[in-house]
Protein backbone atom coordinates (compact mmCIF):
# COMPACT_ATOMS: atom_id res chain seq x y z
CA UNK A 1 0.00 0.00 0.00
CA UNK A 2 2.84 2.34 0.92
CA UNK A 3 4.56 1.53 -2.37
CA UNK A 4 1.43 2.53 -4.35
CA UNK A 5 1.15 5.77 -2.36
CA UNK A 6 4.82 6.57 -3.06
CA UNK A 7 4.32 5.81 -6.77
CA UNK A 8 1.29 8.10 -6.97
CA UNK A 9 3.12 10.83 -5.06
CA UNK A 10 6.11 10.54 -7.40
CA UNK A 11 3.84 10.71 -10.45
CA UNK A 12 2.12 13.82 -9.08
CA UNK A 13 5.46 15.53 -8.48
CA UNK A 14 6.61 14.66 -12.00
CA UNK A 15 3.32 15.86 -13.50
CA UNK A 16 3.42 19.14 -11.54
CA UNK A 17 7.04 19.68 -12.54
CA UNK A 18 6.32 18.98 -16.22
CA UNK A 19 3.24 21.23 -16.13
CA UNK A 20 5.23 24.12 -14.64
CA UNK A 21 7.91 23.76 -17.33
CA UNK A 22 5.28 23.69 -20.08
CA UNK A 23 3.48 26.76 -18.69
CA UNK A 24 6.76 28.67 -18.36
CA UNK A 25 7.67 27.73 -21.95
CA UNK A 26 4.23 28.83 -23.17
CA UNK A 27 4.41 32.17 -21.35
CA UNK A 28 7.87 32.87 -22.81
CA UNK A 29 6.63 32.08 -26.32
CA UNK A 30 3.55 34.27 -25.92
CA UNK A 31 5.72 37.17 -24.74
CA UNK A 32 8.10 36.64 -27.66
CA UNK A 33 5.23 36.62 -30.15
CA UNK A 34 3.80 39.78 -28.59
CA UNK A 35 7.20 41.49 -28.90
CA UNK A 36 7.49 40.48 -32.57
CA UNK A 37 4.06 41.92 -33.25
CA UNK A 38 5.79 45.32 -33.29
CA UNK A 39 9.56 44.69 -33.30
CA UNK A 40 11.40 43.68 -36.52
CA UNK A 41 12.72 40.12 -36.54
CA UNK A 42 16.55 40.30 -36.41
CA UNK A 43 17.35 36.69 -37.37
CA UNK A 44 15.62 33.33 -37.79
CA UNK A 45 16.61 29.71 -37.09
CA UNK A 46 16.73 29.05 -40.86
CA UNK A 47 19.39 31.75 -41.36
CA UNK A 48 21.49 30.18 -38.59
CA UNK A 49 21.03 26.68 -40.05
CA UNK A 50 21.98 27.81 -43.56
CA UNK A 51 25.07 29.52 -42.15
CA UNK A 52 26.08 26.34 -40.34
CA UNK A 53 25.60 24.35 -43.56
CA UNK A 54 27.87 26.77 -45.43
CA UNK A 55 30.45 26.59 -42.68
CA UNK A 56 30.50 22.80 -42.87
CA UNK A 57 30.86 22.98 -46.65
CA UNK A 58 33.81 25.34 -46.34
CA UNK A 59 31.91 28.24 -47.89
CA UNK A 60 31.88 31.87 -46.80
CA UNK A 61 29.07 32.68 -44.39
CA UNK A 62 26.95 35.64 -45.36
CA UNK A 63 23.40 36.62 -46.16
CA UNK A 64 21.27 39.47 -47.50
CA UNK A 65 18.40 40.59 -45.26
CA UNK A 66 16.82 44.03 -44.93
CA UNK A 67 13.70 44.62 -42.87
CA UNK A 68 11.05 46.91 -44.34
CA UNK A 69 7.68 47.91 -42.94
CA UNK A 70 4.28 47.19 -44.50
CA UNK A 71 4.13 50.62 -46.13
CA UNK A 72 7.55 50.09 -47.73
CA UNK A 73 6.41 46.98 -49.60
CA UNK A 74 4.58 47.35 -52.90
CA UNK A 75 1.03 45.98 -53.05
CA UNK A 76 2.11 43.55 -55.78
CA UNK A 77 4.30 41.17 -53.70
CA UNK A 78 1.58 41.06 -51.04
CA UNK A 79 -0.96 39.97 -53.63
CA UNK A 80 1.53 37.68 -55.38
CA UNK A 81 2.46 35.51 -52.40
CA UNK A 82 -1.17 35.12 -51.33
CA UNK A 83 -2.10 34.16 -54.91
CA UNK A 84 0.69 31.61 -55.16
CA UNK A 85 0.96 30.22 -51.61
CA UNK A 86 -2.36 30.59 -49.81
CA UNK A 87 -5.40 31.93 -51.64
CA UNK A 88 -7.65 31.53 -48.59
CA UNK A 89 -5.25 33.45 -46.34
CA UNK A 90 -7.75 36.23 -45.64
CA UNK A 91 -10.50 33.77 -44.66
CA UNK A 92 -8.90 30.99 -42.59
CA UNK A 93 -7.63 31.12 -39.01
CA UNK A 94 -4.20 29.65 -39.64
CA UNK A 95 -5.13 26.30 -41.18
CA UNK A 96 -6.76 25.65 -44.55
CA UNK A 97 -8.81 22.52 -43.86
CA UNK A 98 -9.92 22.18 -47.48
CA UNK A 99 -6.33 22.29 -48.72
CA UNK A 100 -5.28 19.77 -46.05
CA UNK A 101 -8.04 17.36 -47.14
CA UNK A 102 -7.05 17.69 -50.82
CA UNK A 103 -3.37 17.17 -50.00
CA UNK A 104 -4.14 14.04 -47.97
CA UNK A 105 -6.17 12.52 -50.81
CA UNK A 106 -3.48 13.39 -53.34
CA UNK A 107 -0.71 11.93 -51.17
CA UNK A 108 -2.68 8.73 -50.60
CA UNK A 109 -3.06 8.26 -54.35
CA UNK A 110 0.64 8.90 -54.91
CA UNK A 111 1.56 6.42 -52.19
CA UNK A 112 -0.61 3.72 -53.76
CA UNK A 113 1.10 4.35 -57.10
CA UNK A 114 4.49 4.02 -55.45
CA UNK A 115 5.34 7.65 -56.19
CA UNK A 116 7.41 9.76 -53.82
CA UNK A 117 5.64 12.96 -54.86
CA UNK A 118 3.87 14.70 -52.00
CA UNK A 119 1.74 17.82 -51.80
CA UNK A 120 1.75 20.11 -48.77
CA UNK A 121 -1.01 22.35 -47.47
CA UNK A 122 0.89 24.85 -45.34
CA UNK A 123 -0.68 28.29 -45.10
CA UNK A 124 1.24 31.55 -44.98
CA UNK A 125 0.54 31.61 -41.24
CA UNK A 126 2.09 28.16 -40.81
CA UNK A 127 5.10 29.08 -42.94
CA UNK A 128 5.60 32.26 -40.91
CA UNK A 129 5.47 30.28 -37.66
CA UNK A 130 7.90 27.69 -39.02
CA UNK A 131 10.37 30.20 -40.46
CA UNK A 132 10.28 32.44 -37.39
CA UNK A 133 10.61 29.85 -34.63
CA UNK A 134 11.44 26.39 -35.99
CA UNK A 135 13.74 24.32 -38.14
CA UNK A 136 13.16 22.54 -41.48
CA UNK A 137 11.95 18.96 -41.13
CA UNK A 138 8.91 16.71 -40.95
CA UNK A 139 9.02 15.25 -37.45
CA UNK A 140 5.88 15.08 -35.33
CA UNK A 141 7.53 17.30 -32.71
CA UNK A 142 8.23 20.06 -35.24
CA UNK A 143 4.73 19.77 -36.69
CA UNK A 144 3.18 19.96 -33.23
CA UNK A 145 5.17 23.08 -32.38
CA UNK A 146 4.21 24.58 -35.74
CA UNK A 147 0.53 24.10 -34.90
CA UNK A 148 1.01 25.80 -31.52
CA UNK A 149 2.93 28.77 -32.96
CA UNK A 150 0.47 29.16 -35.84
CA UNK A 151 -2.46 29.24 -33.41
CA UNK A 152 -0.69 31.87 -31.27
CA UNK A 153 0.32 34.24 -34.08
CA UNK A 154 -3.19 34.05 -35.57
CA UNK A 155 -4.57 34.85 -32.12
CA UNK A 156 -2.14 37.68 -31.30
CA UNK A 157 -1.30 39.25 -34.68
CA UNK A 158 -3.50 40.81 -37.37
CA UNK A 159 -3.29 39.30 -40.85
CA UNK A 160 -1.28 42.30 -42.07
CA UNK A 161 1.44 41.66 -39.49
CA UNK A 162 1.60 37.95 -40.37
CA UNK A 163 2.12 38.79 -44.04
CA UNK A 164 4.58 41.61 -43.23
CA UNK A 165 6.77 39.25 -41.19
CA UNK A 166 6.44 36.50 -43.82
CA UNK A 167 7.61 38.83 -46.59
CA UNK A 168 10.57 39.95 -44.50
CA UNK A 169 11.91 36.51 -43.52
CA UNK A 170 11.14 34.18 -46.45
CA UNK A 171 14.08 32.62 -48.24
CA UNK A 172 14.24 33.90 -51.84
CA UNK A 173 17.60 32.54 -52.95
CA UNK A 174 20.87 31.27 -51.59
CA UNK A 175 21.53 33.59 -48.64
CA UNK A 176 18.70 35.94 -49.64
CA UNK A 177 15.98 36.57 -47.06
CA UNK A 178 13.04 38.89 -47.40
CA UNK A 179 11.45 40.74 -50.26
CA UNK A 180 13.57 43.88 -49.83
CA UNK A 181 16.89 42.03 -50.12
CA UNK A 182 15.59 40.04 -53.10
CA UNK A 183 14.28 43.15 -54.84
CA UNK A 184 17.58 44.99 -54.42
CA UNK A 185 19.63 41.98 -55.53
CA UNK A 186 17.57 40.85 -58.53
CA UNK A 187 15.96 44.09 -59.77
CA UNK A 188 18.14 46.89 -58.39
CA UNK A 189 15.19 48.59 -56.73
CA UNK A 190 13.47 48.69 -53.33
CA UNK A 191 10.49 46.46 -52.55
CA UNK A 192 8.26 49.54 -52.64
CA UNK A 193 8.90 49.81 -56.41
CA UNK A 194 8.26 46.19 -57.41
CA UNK A 195 5.80 45.84 -60.28
CA UNK A 196 3.33 43.01 -60.91
CA UNK A 197 5.69 41.02 -63.15
CA UNK A 198 8.65 41.22 -60.74
CA UNK A 199 6.51 40.37 -57.71
CA UNK A 200 5.00 37.36 -59.47
CA UNK A 201 8.49 36.18 -60.44
CA UNK A 202 9.67 36.28 -56.80
CA UNK A 203 6.54 34.40 -55.71
CA UNK A 204 7.07 31.84 -58.46
CA UNK A 205 10.30 30.51 -56.94
CA UNK A 206 8.51 29.63 -53.69
CA UNK A 207 8.64 27.19 -52.02
CA UNK A 208 11.98 26.05 -53.58
CA UNK A 209 14.05 29.26 -53.76
CA UNK A 210 17.39 27.45 -53.80
CA UNK A 211 16.29 25.12 -56.59
CA UNK A 212 14.73 27.81 -58.80
CA UNK A 213 16.20 31.20 -59.62
CA UNK A 214 14.48 34.57 -59.87
CA UNK A 215 17.52 35.99 -61.66
CA UNK A 216 17.60 33.22 -64.29
CA UNK A 217 14.05 31.85 -64.53
CA UNK A 218 13.57 28.71 -66.58
CA UNK A 219 10.45 27.71 -68.56
CA UNK A 220 8.67 26.30 -65.48
CA UNK A 221 9.18 29.47 -63.43
CA UNK A 222 8.11 31.67 -66.34
CA UNK A 223 4.89 29.63 -66.74
CA UNK A 224 4.27 29.76 -63.01
CA UNK A 225 4.85 33.53 -63.00
CA UNK A 226 2.17 34.03 -65.67
CA UNK A 227 -0.25 31.84 -63.71
CA UNK A 228 0.34 33.91 -60.57
CA UNK A 229 -0.25 37.13 -62.49
CA UNK A 230 -3.62 35.79 -63.69
CA UNK A 231 -4.55 34.90 -60.12
CA UNK A 232 -3.59 38.40 -58.97
CA UNK A 233 -5.78 39.99 -61.63
CA UNK A 234 -8.70 37.74 -60.72
CA UNK A 235 -8.58 38.66 -57.02
CA UNK A 236 -8.94 42.45 -56.70
CA UNK A 237 -9.79 42.01 -53.00
CA UNK A 238 -6.11 41.24 -52.39
CA UNK A 239 -5.18 44.77 -53.42
CA UNK A 240 -7.82 46.20 -51.10
CA UNK A 241 -6.20 44.22 -48.29
CA UNK A 242 -2.69 45.25 -49.40
CA UNK A 243 -3.58 48.93 -49.14
CA UNK A 244 -4.92 48.51 -45.60
CA UNK A 245 -3.26 49.24 -42.26
β-strand amount: under 5%
Shape: globular
Termini gap: 65 Å
CATH hierarchy, class:
Mainly Alpha
Query: What is the N-to-C order of secondary-structure elements (H for helix, E for strand)?
Result: HHEHHHHHEHHHH
Q: How many domains?
A: 1
Q: Helicity range of the residues? A: 55-70%
**Which regions are unreliable across 5 or more consecutive residues at pLDDT < 50?**
none
In the sheet with the most strands, the strands line up as 1-2
> What is the CA-based Rg, rounded?
21 Å
Task: Kindly name the structural category.
Answer: mainly alpha
Instruction: Tell me how many strands there are.
Output: 2
The main sheet comes to: 2 strands, parallel
- CATH third-tier fold name: Penicillin binding protein transpeptidase fold
Give a brief outline of the structure.
It contains eleven helices and two strands, in the order H-H-E-H-H-H-H-H-E-H-H-H-H. The protein is 62% helix and 2% strand.
Explain this structure.
The chain has helices at residues 2-36, 45-56, 75-85, 97-112, 124-133, 140-156, 159-169, 179-187, 196-204, 219-233, 237-242, and strands spanning 64-65, 176-177. It has one domain (11-38, 64-242): Biosynthetic peptidoglycan transglycosylase-like (Penicillin binding protein transpeptidase fold, Orthogonal Bundle), CATH 1.10.3810. It is mostly helical and 245 residues long. Helix 3 packs parallel to helix 9 and helix 3 packs across helix 10 (219-233). The longest helix has 35 residues, at 2-36. Strands 1-2 form a two-stranded parallel ribbon. The radius of gyration is 21 Å and the shape is globular. The chain starts with a helix and ends with a helix. The mean pLDDT is 88. It is built from eleven helices and two strands.
